[in-house]
Structures are given as C-alpha cells and as structure tokens.
Amino acid sequence: MDQFSNHPLYKVHNIDSAMNSLWEFYKKHFLPLFLISVVMSLTIQYATTFIDLKDIQSETDPLLILEKMKVFLVPMLVISLLNLFFTTILQHYVIYRPVDSDNSVLSSVIKSLRYFVPYLITIIILSFTGAIAIVLGFFVLVVGAVFAAIYILTLYLLILPVMMVEGPDIANTFRRIFSLTHRNFWSNFGWVATFIILLLVVSLVLSGIVLIPFTGSFFKTLFNPETAETAADLTKNPIFYFLSSLVNALTMPLMPVFAAILYFNGKAREEQQSKEILAEKAEERVRVEDLYAKPYSDNHPENPEKTDQDRL
Fold first, then answer.
1. Range of the domain at 73
2. How far apart are CA 312 and CA 308, in angstroms?
C-alpha cells in the first residue's frame, strides 16, 4: 500500500474541504512550520540588507540603472537560492512528517537536499516557458496574462510534491505536473486563484499591523515624498526587521501545505477513477458460466425436457 494513502491531506477534496484541511494541518503543525519559516524569513531579510537601491532610485537613465543593477546580481541570486532551499525544507516536512513520526525538522533539512538540484533545474526551465506564456498572455489583454500566471503557478506548486512522492526525475516531474494540472483543470485553476487572493488579503492585513508602530513615518512619506529616502531606512530598523520576519513566517507555511493538498487531491482522484474503470471492466468481463446456456426452469415453455403433454 502507498504510504501516503494515510496522509491527512490525501483525499478527494472540494474547495471547502481543501481550505478546511489547510487550516487544520496548519494548526496541528504550526510550531515546527513557524520556526522553519522564522529562520527562513530572518535569513532572507538579512540577505536583502546587502542590496541598497538608493543610488538606483535617483537614476533615470535605463542603461545606467542596468549597469548599477549588475552589482546586486550575486546577492539577488543568493536570496533566490535561499528561498528555494527553505521552500524545499518546508515542503518535505509537510509531505513526510504525517506519515513518518521519525521525520524531524533536522531530517527534513538533510533529506530535502536530494530534491534541491532537480527542483532548481525544473524551476529554471519552467521560468523561461512561463515568462513566454505570460508575455503572450499580454497580447490577449491583461486577462490573458493573469490566466497564464495562475496556470504557471499551478504547475509550480505541484513540482515539489511530485518529486518527493514519485521521485526526483525531472522528465517525469514535467509529465506529471502537466497531467495533474490538466486533470480537473478548472477546479485546480479556481482553487489556486482563490488561495492566492486569500493569501494576499491575509498578508496585507498582517503587514498593515506591523506598520502600526511606524505609522508616523509612513504618513510623513505619503504627504512629503522628499522624505522617501528616510522612510526607506525603515526596513533596516531592527524592530521592523524582526516584526516583518514574524509576519512573513505566519504565511510562508501556507503555500507548501496548499501545494500538498493540490497534489494529493489529484492523486486521490486518479486512484478513484482507476478503481471505477476496473469495476466497469469487471462487470463487462465474460464469465465461464456465460459461455453455456442457462438451464430452463421446470415451468418454462421452452424447456427441452418438458413433454408435449406438459406444454399443453
């Protein structure tokens, strides 16, 4: 039996049960997921301090802006790699912790290394194709670009769950993420769109709460743009730095949990359809007794053993 069939997220979902499962899983595993996310957020926040955009903000020449941006390529690359690595750790914990009680945060950190390089390669390939799809979407107005973005995001969410359950084979991963995305396509599309909207709303509300202690600086910048440079230093404020990291840590685990729901829902539906097909084939299968004539009952008029007198 597949060990993941006992996973709490492994079942055929509707939108209500998906969101309910997301919340229940989040509550049950909140502490380890939150701690991983806090470390992730603090690390990434610290890495962003090496990117100072003050010089670029005052520049108007596009060529000079691109020239100055080259300095930040390495820090931005490091931040992207850190983000992908922590995402892999979170996804591994979400996938394996419910089915393996020995799987701790530390073991997820170590075991997730197996999937990091294939995940990185898959992301790079998907990024190129996704960028082309979004650009083409703009030719069909903004709606086309939004549609393409949600479609690419659906594919992206399925990458790690597929790799961690079915193996880190890149070719198989691409085949499976397209297969699972196109199976119940509109349902998947609606779920992802709904989830993103909810995540954005929650993130905006929490970010607004963090800004409350710094409201004075915010409104000063709003009514006096000349102080924007001073307000930019707000991100280097240790209190703001810490509070924003805590807020980010509250929402970061939601994405891998939702990704697991999306994958296990697709896998459970595949299993359900396979059982239905097997049941239909079993009903249509010719049995041995069907090859022989069924015996007539004693009172059947065409019973060959019945005498002419009996028929009268």
1. 30-111
2. 6
